[in-house]
Write a structure and sequence with these properties.
This protein is of the alpha+beta class. 24% of the residues lie in helices and 42% in strands. The chain crosses the membrane at residues 238-258.
């Protein structure tokens, strides 16, 4: 008779004699592919009469066992390690196929207890794309010099350091334009032109298969008519124009004073 079958036989005998087993809630553990994870028994030290069994999956496939302080490993991959002192199970170089339910059964001094662990193994790429920044909508700075008399407002939606995403402009629920990228850590920008008096709802959305972020456009805050060049244009050009006007004024006053003296 194998040690696993012997263990299960003893388990049923003890369960019938000493009553129902104590079952703990499932603990959820997330780990990146290639790392190591340890599932703890919370035992200070395994005693000689303790029976410990680790199983994996819905079919309770035996993974490791301690019987009379002797360790038995049923893992053919060689990546599983059972700590002799505590009975805790360590999985090294963990892979996505190692995701699932691990169950610990401990028979100690005639009492049976369980611990269950739901292990989720994620790829590093999945973790990177899970976070998305909120898009930033700004006015196109080139409009100041090239389109100051235009009836349209030029905007740009931008995001930085993103990968495997799609950036889109929406008018209501309809997509106006979009751009996708699969490279790592790249910046994206998507232009849009709207009329100053446009009352429609616009939004810029960045999304991937895991999550999305939305920034709504407030036309009244970003778009102003260009009747006033200082208001319409950037502060740099406005300052330059003021400086030129001041220099012209100084030159004119100087010329007048020179004519009076002469």
């Amino acid at each position: 008779m194998s040690f696993f079958l012997l263990f299960m036989l003893i388990f049923f005998i003890f369960s019938g004699v000493f009553g129902a087993a104590k079952v703990n809630e499932i603990q959820s553990i997330s780990v990146m592919r290639g790392d190591s994870v340890t599932l703890h028994t919370d035992l200070t030290e395994v005693q000689r009469d303790d029976l410990i069994l680790w199983t994996f999956g819905s079919k309770d496939v035996p993974t490791a066992e301690i019987h009379e302080q002797v360790i038995y490993m049923y893992d053919s991959k060689g990546r599983f390690r059972l700590e002799e002192k505590t009975g805790s199970l360590t999985i090294r170089n963990i892979r996505t196929e190692d995701s699932g339910l691990y169950e610990l059964t401990v028979i100690n001094s005639g009492r049976t207890s369980y611990k269950r662990f739901n292990v989720t193994v994620s790829d590093a790429l999945e973790i990177n794309v899970a976070y998305l920044p909120v898009p930033v909508i700004s006015r196109d700075s080139s409009q100041c010099s090239s389109s100051s008399s235009s009836s349209n407002c030029s905007l740009v939606c931008s995001v930085v350091n993103v990968s495997h995403v799609t950036l889109s402009w929406y008018k209501g629920n309809s997509v106006l334009s979009s751009i996708s990228v699969s490279d790592l850590s790249i910046s994206l920008s998507l232009p849009l032109e709207v009329e100053y008096q446009d009352k429609n709802s616009y939004s810029c959305v960045i999304n991937n298969p895991i999550s999305n972020q939305t920034q709504h456009l407030d036309i009244s805050k970003l778009c102003h008519t260009c009747s006033d060049s200082v208001t319409c244009c950037g502060s740099t050009e406005a300052v330059i124009r003021l400086v030129i006007s001041a220099l012209v004024g100084v030159a004119t006053v100087t010329a007048v004073i020179y004519d009076i003296r002469s």
